[in-house]
Amino acid sequence: MRMHNPPHPGEIIKALCLEPVGLTVTEAAEGLGVSRKTLSAILNGRSGISPEMAVRLSIAFNTSAESWLSQQVQYDLWHAEQGRKALKVIKLAA
User: Fold this and answer.
1) What pLDDT sits at residue 4?
2) pLDDT (0 to 100) of residue 3
3) Integer distance in angstroms from the first to the last C-alpha of the chain?
4) What is the dihedral sign for C-alpha 57, 58, 62, 68?
5) 54: exposed, middle or buried (C-beta count within 10 Å: 0-12, 13-18, 19+)?
6) Which residues, 6+ apart, have CB-to-CB distance to 53 below 8 Å?
7) Residue among 33, 40, 43, 34 nearest 13 (CA)
8) Which of 2, 27, 63, 66 is 20 to 30 Å apart from 57, CA to CA?
9) Any residues with CB less than 8 A from the CB of 31 and at least 6 apart, and which?
10) CB within 8 A of 72, min separation 6: which ones?
11) What is the phi/psi pair of residue 88, to 5°?
12) Nearest one of 41, 52, 55, 35 to 8, comparing CA atoms
């Protein structure tokens, strides 16, 4: 069963990984080995989690890369499904 309007993974990172331990965006970006701009874009929902970022997050926060990618896929799929009726697609198989 798909989640109803799942949160962007950036919201999860902010709420469950950064805020509880008091990490700033700058500190977290340095720890992840990415620019502050890159991490900020993810945290603010302007960018998604790439496979490489998923691996970085898994190392930094002792999680699985698959869980981060799964969250991104759920978010992306839910938003794609919202436009399902507007898609001009015909059935090609019985």
Assistant:
1) 86
2) 63
3) 25
4) positive
5) buried
6) 32, 34, 42, 68
7) 43
8) 2
9) 23, 60
10) 9, 48, 49, 54
11) -95, 80
12) 41
Residues in Cβ contact with 34 at an 8 Å cutoff, skipping those fewer than 6 apart: 53, 56
pLDDT tens for 8-17 read 999 999 999 9
Q: Looking at residue 5, what DSSP letter applies?
A: S
**Looking at this protein, which amino acid is placed at residue 60?**
A
User: What's the pLDDT tens digit per position in 57-85?
Assistant: 999 999 999 999 999 999 999 999 999 99
All structural domains of the chain, each given as residue ranges with its CATH number in brackets, are 9-84 (1.10.260.40)
The rounded distance, in Å, linking the Cα atoms of 59 and 61 is 6
CA distance 54 to 48: 10
User: Look-up: residue for tokens 């009726």?
Assistant: 85
| Residue 41 burial class via C-beta count within 10 angstroms: exposed 0-12, middle 13-18, buried 19 and up | middle
